[in-house]
Amino acid sequence: MPKRLLILTTKLGYQTRAFVDAAQKLGLEIAFGTDRCGQLDDPWGDHAVPLKFENPDEAARRVLQARDLGTIDAIVSLGDRPTPTAARIAHALRLPHHSAAATDVCRDKYRSRALLRNAGLQVPRFVRVPLDIAPSDLLAKIADATGFPCVLKPLALSGSRGVIRANDEREARAAFDRIRSLLRSSDVRVLREESSDFLQIESYIDGVEIAVEALMDRGRLRVLAIFDKPDPLDGPFFEETIYVTPSRLADVQQRTVVDPLERSTVALGLSHGPIHAELRVNDQGAWPLEIAARSIGGLCSRALRFTMKEPDTSSSVITKAPVAHICPSAGQMWEDANLHSLEEIILRLALGESMDAVARERFASGVMMIPIPEPGIYRGVEGVDDALAIPYVDEIRITAKPEQKLVPLPEGASYLGFLFARAERPDQVEAALRAAHGKLRFEIGAALPVV
Q1: Which of 1, 54, 403, 437 is most buried, judging by how many CB atoms fall within 10 Å of its CB?
Q2: What is the pTM of this model?
Q3: Contacts of residue 401, Cβ cutoff 8 Å, sequence gap at least 6
């Protein structure tokens, strides 16, 4: 009998499609648990178990009591919100996974920061404040705990949403008001996160920011890729745009990243599953900022390909023709049977396979998350063919849909799309992504005011 995979996800989007493709490649049967109303009669025809991820104990019980779900051999969760539910189901079924306690703490920036500090890791000074704090008390907390410059952020939102730097008291009050409005907005309140009644204030840490994609394999850390973020992330907002791997940090700096990351996973109790980490690196070493019990989000995983044996260095030429998608597609970008997607690697890990032979491909690669330049209504894009003509650019995915309302960071939670490039060197990848972005011309109409 084929093995059965349970996918927990908040929505059936393009990241879900990537895991489905990987599962089908491995011959797995698929079941879904999604965040939706349980009163509707299977509106998407996917036979998913309707769940409410804000209550992971109840969501896990609902899955375990589902009569038609069948035997579950592996579990993956997409994004931050489903991971505590997945951990509880895995524990009940005795499947390898991060613990419930670890996934819970990774969902809360205050609790995770406290654990890392208590374990002796370098972390920013920080303090948590309620949304109803008086302005004078807010400034007193900053003066006592962090000083200026500082960074104000929500406790549970991801992707730099709601993260704002403040250099003085005026900017701190304005940032606090802006984040409070975001946390009280309907699209955040509907998530019913208790942590949304607070925000965190941290001292600003100077340095270069990197991202690390890794696995915990039965308690052992396996670093898959270190991404440079070549755009300066010094505020006032922290919109991530370009990721490039391998990192161009000096070897000694890259080595200083692995030890604090490994110590962080121990402090948080992470044991088996994907890891996505954000760190700052400066003369004092590496500072863990975020450690998430999940893989990289959106379509960014398409920048990563892996071998399951020693990498083949016999060829140094990339021959693949570029591809453009104006809308998300179910098609596989790579057909080389010797290369494996990140999603396939994660599924194999969930099934209990050894990760000892996994290695990233030899080429440099990268992704640009195309930022939203201004609020408005998305009308369309021109210049895609010109962007694809840039050497080393191999795919463009425009994920914004016509008539979609666009909201930039720090309030927004999406991008216009994704650019991908692959070359011999990281600098070639970065240059290709920037050149391709310069060819794209987005039409954004004015949004009608609400009266």
Answers
A1: 437
A2: 0.91
A3: 327, 378
